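pinging the channel bc i need a second pair of eyes. not urgent but kinda urgent?? the chain im working w is below, pasted from the shared doc
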Amino acid sequence: MPKHYHDQVGKQPSGVTPLAFRIAGWLLTVISLASAIAIQGRAIGPILWLGLLTVAAQVVALILTCRVRWRQI
């Protein structure tokens, strides 16, 4: 999202940047699901993937929350 990009980088994204990030995000998501299935199989792979995705989202949320506090110091 342009607002979040501006908050983190300090400038507005160029015309191609949001599309490139969106494509890269979907591509990496599919690759991570495929690798979880390849490692653990079709039965456990998606469950493992969802668990790790949840943990990763919580870590990102925590880091972004703490980063706001770091900027204020």
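so The helical segments are 2-9, 17-72. and The chain has a mean pLDDT of 86. — does that match what u expected or am i reading it wrong
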